[in-house]
Specification:
17% strand, TIM Barrel, single chain
Length: 260
């Protein structure tokens, strides 16, 4: 099996456990379910802000453990303090070392828009995302068929969440619909884990101006950001560059200084 296939098999198992532990009715009664979401797309597009969606994650399938000592509270608050346009929080445990409580902790500390980054395959996870305080959800084209994606994106928008559609090739552009706010291009192939920013460059002109465009993975320098901006990208999701540093907040702050 590919890495993505392994993740999805495990995700289905985790989903059954979550549904047994907390019902949909209980999720819909949680405090954060009633809050108004903050627009991630507006924050990324705001030229007075950084355009960076800074990510908190402890590990990845490609690198293993990246940072086991970083505090989600300190890192996400620091990202927000130093001007992140958005904060991405990994909530997958088995492959990325995260959990929903990381996002809930971040939500209590920041007013910056928060993206829940996970492998969302079911309506339960969309409802859960709103209940734990997310402002936007990541939906991955490679993990969903077209009907699943349409249903999940429609549900997300109906409860106030923005949708970031993650694509990796031209065929997946067909997933873009009226419920998507942010079109993301992942430079990492989820099947092989190979990273190539040429993927973003090749797809940029093919994405309608109706969507905020972001590039994800492999973005490590000012020159790459400049090239991607010139190609039409509004924002950039960056995680490992910051999290692989002993002090992710300092790494983010220093990077912001270089691109400014």
């Amino acid at each position: 099996m590919t890495v993505l296939e392994k993740i999805l098999v495990n995700k289905k198992r985790e989903l059954k456990e979550s549904e047994r532990r907390v019902t949909l009715k209980e999720l819909e009664a949680m405090e954060f379910f009633f809050r108004d979401c903050i627009s991630l797309s507006d924050s990324i597009s705001d030229k007075q802000k950084s355009s960076i969606v800074a990510e908190f994650k402890r590990k990845s399938p490609s690198k293993g453990f990246i940072n086991t000592s970083a505090s989600v509270e300190e890192v996400t608050a620091g990202y927000s303090r130093h001007g992140a346009s958005g904060i991405s929080v990994l909530t997958d445990h088995a492959f990325f070392g995260g959990n929903i409580y990381d996002l809930m902790l971040a939500r209590r500390l920041v007013e910056t828009p928060i993206l829940r980054k996970d492998f969302i395959i079911d309506e339960y996870q969309v409802i859960e995302s709103k209940a734990i305080g997310a402002d936007a959800v990541l939906l991955i084209a490679a993990a969903l068929d077209k009907e699943q994606f349409n249903n999940l994106s429609r549900l997300a928008r109906s409860i106030g969440l923005q949708v970031l559609l993650e694509m990796h090739n031209e065929q997946e552009l067909d997933y873009l619909n009226e419920y998507v706010s942010i079109a993301g291009v992942n430079n990492r192939d989820l099947k092989t884990l190979k990273v190539d920013t040429e993927i973003s460059l090749g797809l940029a002109a093919k994405i309608s101006d109706n969507y905020v465009r972001i590039s994800e993975s492999g973005i490590s320098s000012h020159s790459i950001i400049r090239e991607l901006r010139e190609a039409g990208y509004n924002g950039f999701l960056i995680g490992e560059k910051f999290m692989s540093d002993a002090d992710p907040v300092r790494a983010f702050h220093d990077f912001m200084n270089t691109i400014n």
